[in-house]
Amino acid sequence: MTATTVATTIATSATPDRVNLLGLTKAQLEQFFVDHGEKKFRAQQVLKWIHHAGVTDFAEMSNLGKALREKLEHIAEVRPPEIVSQHDSADGTRKWAIRVDGGGLVEAVLIPDRDRATLCVSSQVGCSLDCSFCSTGKQGFMRDLSAAEIIGQVWLAIKSFDAFQSGKGRVVTNVVMMGMGEPLLNFDNVVSAMNLMMEDLAYGISKRRVTLSTSGVVPALDKLAEVSEASLAISLHAPNDALRNELVPINRKYPIARLLESSRNYIAAQSDNKRVVTVEYTLIAGVNDQPDQARELAELLRDFPCKINLIPFNPFPQSDYQRPSGNAVSRFWQVLVDAGYIVTVRTTRGDDIDAACGQLVGQVVDRTRRSERYRNAGQNQVTEAG
Ligand code: SAH
Ligand code: SF4
Predict the structure, then answer these.
(1) Which atom of ligand 2 is nearest to the CA of 137?
(2) Which InterPro entries match (predicted)?
(3) Nearest atom in ligand 2 to 124's CA
(4) Interval 291-322: pLDDT, tens
(5) Which domains does the chain have, with CATH numbers?
(6) pLDDT tens for residues 212-230?
(7) Which residue, 46, 174, 291, 329, is most buried by CB atoms nearer than 10 A?
(8) Residue 131, annotated ligand binder?
């Protein structure tokens, strides 16, 4: 292992009653200024200072005027979350452990690949949905991240390369909401943060390069179509409901047919008609990696506008599942390719720093027992999707 570890602390602690401007969208920031008797256009200036220039200190926002800067110091702050540690892998992957208010830890990972670099972002501390192969799910749920804590991961990644305004080119070209948590169960904050990722006055990342991954919270996905243009990935992992019920418990509430229908509606609602859904399929040895299951999957997805991403299972200590052999992965891949699908296999990156996307480990205590409620709940279980 050639990883290096750097410990940094950028953030200061929260100041009660001050609004953290880091997580506000353009519309929200405009409202903030109007509410405080200021001109709307101040929002544009402040957005650029925060997200283009990486500035957190109002005193440095030179085009605001002294009186406004002083006023902002009293009523607002720009406070990114706190980096606990930063690890660099030999292959260029960089991973951060991030402490959020209240003491929880989440992780973000930047995975460079040729001319692009994908940041894998967390949306919750833990996750309540308890998928059988997921280390985050095994930790239970602690709380939702705020919009500032979500967009703060993008901010921190760029800051860590000292790349705001440095002319070093784009540090983050793509974002995937595939870190800890189920993004659709933290709907408003995730939508606001993705909005900032795509906003030209903030990060200006194209809507095709910001991807929300969901295990299938169908009502929230239906709602997402009304407010977001981000790309969509769905965590399928099984070719039929019987197996998916075991692997992804939320399937018992929203079975495959409903998830596929809702996903199809989501891309149909987008302004461009060339969109496809990314179908994620984690391959687990002897569980869902057999050629018959690949054929069943090919049949299931016939006529569904998608590409397929196969993810060999990443083992972790609390799980008895095994990663499939290279041969099993190839066989599965071949069946799908022969059936006419575009299929990618996720290569493991940052192995030496345990940085696999979707397998981010933090110390999470389930203080809310929400996981338990999800396991036992009836019809109303997903109302917190917003
Ligand atoms: N909650 C969302 C996003 C986070 S998980 C979702 O489930 O889609 C991101 C991806 O990593 C999902 O496709 C998830 O199924 C996958 N994943 C989780 N644990 C994994 C593991 N141990 N090995 C391989 N993939 C895993
Ligand atoms: Fe939650 Fe996604 Fe993990 Fe399932 S796979 S437990 S939805 S983070």
Answers:
(1) 6
(2) Aldolase_TIM, Methyltransferase_A, RlmN_N, RNA_MTrfase_RlmN, rRNA_lsu_MTrfase_RlmN/Cfr, rSAM, rSAM_sf
(3) 8
(4) 999 999 999 999 999 999 999 999 988 899 99
(5) 19-77 (1.10.150.530), 82-374 (3.20.20.70)
(6) 999 999 999 999 999 999 9
(7) 46
(8) yes
